[in-house]
Structures are given as C-alpha cells and as structure tokens.
Design goal:
10 strands, 31% strand, single chain, 203 residues, alpha+beta
Length: 203
C-alpha cells in the first residue's frame, strides 16, 4: 500500500537521521521519487524528504518543485510551482473510512450531536463504523480536531494539506496511534489482524 514501496528496494541514498526519531530519515533530494509518489504534476525536483518506511504506520514527506512556461507571442514566462506532500500508510488490513474527506459509503451518524456537526464519517460498512467510532473514539476526535483523513482499501492514509514540518508529522502520527489504539480488540480479530498492530490505549 505504500506510495514508495518500489522505491524502498532501490539502493538507499545517504541520509540524516533525527535525534528524537531514530527511525526517521532525511534526504535532501531524490528526484526519482516523482515517479512513485502521487504528486499533482509529474517530474520536477523532490526535495527535503523525511521518511519512515518501517513500523505499522509509515510515512514519506517531500517538497515538490517544478516549472511551467506560458507563451505570449515569442515571449515565454516561466512560473515556479511548489507543493508539500505527505503520505501515510499502514501495513495491516482496515476497512476504508473517511473523516471530512471524500470517501466511499454513506455518511454515518453517531450518538454525539457535536460530533455529527463537526465530522462527516463515510464508510461502506455501517456496523464497522459504529464499532470503530465508539464514545471514546468520538471524544478523541473532538479533542484532537483533525482537518480530515481517509483510510483507503490499500492501506494508504490520505490527509488534508499542510506544510508538513516535522512537528506536524509527529502530531499526525500521534493522532493515528491513538485512533487505531482506540479500536476494540474484537474489531481487529474480525479483520483477521491479531495480535493487534497498534497497542491498546489504556483508560
């Protein structure tokens, strides 16, 4: 499910690690990633790459820069473009769910009026959504207040746009750790994922 699954088998480039995150790697530039990541435009430069390709929740973050030319008669005006990309993915099965983003299935309603006003949860399996979004999970989302995310069938997690500085990545990883940590044991067993891939959140 990783957007860089092919790339990680290539000879690794020299990288710099992070003091507080020994599993994170920093690479200044790797333009070959433009062939593997779902960027808005192919080609260009891929810079400031931060990645963690191990663990139940992985990610890759990059700054993508490219140029386009607009012609007026014989004069060309070059425009510079930039986007910050960050993709997350999981190495376990999970039924697709989206929160405040486009997704599959109908919008699900829950027992919290405040939650239903702030979040639109879509899932093709209403029972699964009800099992995952129990009262503690609703409280977690109301407290964390994520902009939006969508877990796809292939395990990729799409997230709302951001600059994706290391601190923002850390917050998002922490949110997903708690989100999956709130999923009950019986749900993981029904998914055929046991022992659970993310430790259970204790009361």
């Amino acid at each position: 499910g990783s957007p860089a699954v092919d790339h990680e088998w290539e000879p690794p480039l020299p990288y710099v690690s992070f003091a507080n995150h020994p599993d994170w790697e920093f690479v200044g530039r790797d333009d070959s990633l433009a062939q593997h990541l779902p960027l808005s435009t192919p080609g260009g430069q891929v810079l400031n790459i931060v990645r963690c390709l191990r663990g139940p929740i992985s990610f890759i973050r990059a700054t993508h820069q490219w140029q386009t030319a607009a012609y007026t008669g014989q004069t060309a005006t070059v425009q510079n473009h930039i986007e910050n990309f960050c993709g997350f993915w999981v190495n376990f099965n999970f039924i697709p769910i989206s929160v405040n983003m486009a997704g599959f299935g109908d919008v699900q309603s829950f027992e919290s009026i405040d939650f239903n006003k702030r979040f639109k949860v879509r899932c093709p399996n209403p029972r699964f959504a009800s099992d995952v979004f129990h009262q503690r999970q609703l409280e977690h989302l109301l407290s964390a207040s994520p902009e939006g995310f969508a877990i796809t069938q292939g395990g990729t997690i799409q997230v709302a746009e951001s600059e994706w500085l290391p601190a923002q990545i850390e917050v998002m990883l922490g949110f997903f750790q708690e989100f999956f940590g709130q999923v009950p044991d019986f749900v993981w067993k029904e998914l055929g994922v046991w022992p659970r891939p993310i430790p259970k959140q204790e009361d």
